[in-house]
């Protein structure tokens, strides 16, 4: 099947989308849209061919009648842009967060359903090898039921641009990756959260750049998150540093390639049970990894009649709901239910 797309938002983040699209047979990007014409032209040049460029996404969609909108625009433009694309018959693959509010997110899902179109989110962290390997280990039951997940995220990036003026920037723009990974790994959704946000002295962000949250999950597990985007020195991976505790053992992952797990061994002597190492499953051909490319492949396969993508809006809204509930908790100082 031949599919044509329009890509909106041609800043630095669009490069990963363009590189992934180049690797999917039958997919072409016919138009590039950005408020800065130079960015649209540069993106078109990196794609090659005769793609059109412009500053008006709706006009571009009306002119080209594409099958797909790739939405890499800033979050404040997302709801209007995606709603317009769905009304014009486009399938939509969108950046995270999928909307600015839960009401907007629910509205977009309703519009996609009414239009009979696929709406999915580029939740690319699900599509990396360590996440897939850990998920298979946990699903095997070797650690027993997961009772808690703990994550640390500490980096100090200087982005410039909209992020440094964005409210709740860590939770909205980054923590959703970790929250979604916790759902992916545990197989559980969140029911409630208590969260504290703050902006430390010396921060170069205008608003809350650090957060700590405790989530209650559906099977009785607890997920804790500690993070900062103004942590100088000794940075973690972008994927966070993890500890996952089960009934019969524990797993740690440094967010890079070091994954280790131990389970209870022979009968204990003295104070502690003995422990024995567990082999981590190797990479598997069925893992569907490759970040942006993995998400995009599943999205295109769904358009062509395959299964609904793993990061479809109907599922991703549960991760977005964790973010929005954490923000409400931070603003109110109260434990908040995670409602979808």
From TrEMBL:
Domain GFO/IDH/MocA-like oxidoreductase residue range list: 131-251
Domain of life where this protein originates: Bacteria
InterPro entries: Gfo/Idh/MocA-like_OxRdtase_N (IPR000683), Gfo/Idh/MocA_oxidoreduct (IPR051317), GFO_IDH_MocA-like_dom (IPR055170), NAD(P)-bd_dom_sf (IPR036291)
Record-level Gene Ontology MF annotations: nucleotide binding
Pfam family, one: GFO_IDH_MocA
Gfo/Idh/MocA-like oxidoreductase N-terminal domain location: 4-121
Stored PANTHER family: CONSERVED EXPRESSED OXIDOREDUCTASE (EUROFUNG), OXIDOREDUCTASE
Protein name (record): Gfo/Idh/MocA family oxidoreductase
The organism of origin for this protein: Acidisoma cellulosilyticum
């Amino acid at each position: 099947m031949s599919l044509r797309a329009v890509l909106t938002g041609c800043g630095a983040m669009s490069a990963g989308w363009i590189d992934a699209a180049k690797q999917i047979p039958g997919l072409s990007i016919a138009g590039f849209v950005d408020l800065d014409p130079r960015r649209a032209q540069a993106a078109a040049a990196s794609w090659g061919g005769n793609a059109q460029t412009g500053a008006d996404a709706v006009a571009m969609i009306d002119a080209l009648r594409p099958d797909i909108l790739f939405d890499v625009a800033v979050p404040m433009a997302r709801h209007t842009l995606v709603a317009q694309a769905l009304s014009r018959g486009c399938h939509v693959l969108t950046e995270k967060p999928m909307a600015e509010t839960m009401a907007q997110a629910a509205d977009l899902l309703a519009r996609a359903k009414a239009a009979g179109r696929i709406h999915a989110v580029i939740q690319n962290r699900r599509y990396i090898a360590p996440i897939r390997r850990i998920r298979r280990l946990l699903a095997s039951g070797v650690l027993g039921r997961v009772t808690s997940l703990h994550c640390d995220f500490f980096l100090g990036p200087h982005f410039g641009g909209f992020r440094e003026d964005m409210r709740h920037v860590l939770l909205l723009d980054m923590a959703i990756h970790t929250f979604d990974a916790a759902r992916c790994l545990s197989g559980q959704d969140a029911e409630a959260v208590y969260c504290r946000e703050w902006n430390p002295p010396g921060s170069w962000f205008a608003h809350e750049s650090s957060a700590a949250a405790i989530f209650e999950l559906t099977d009785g597990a607890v997920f804790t998150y500690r993070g900062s985007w103004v942590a100088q020195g000794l940075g973690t991976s972008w994927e966070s540093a993890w500890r996952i505790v089960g009934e019969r053992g524990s797993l740690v992952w440094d967010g890079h390639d070091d994954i280790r797990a131990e389970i209870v061994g022979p009968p204990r002597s003295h104070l502690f049970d003995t422990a024995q190492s567990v082999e981590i499953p190797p990479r598997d051909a069925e893992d569907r990894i490759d970040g942006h490319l993995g998400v995009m492949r599943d999205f295109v396969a769904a358009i062509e009649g395959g299964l609904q993508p793993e990061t479809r809006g109907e599922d991703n809204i549960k991760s977005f709901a964790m973010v929005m509930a954490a923000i409400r908790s931070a603003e109110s100082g109260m434990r908040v239910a995670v409602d979808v």
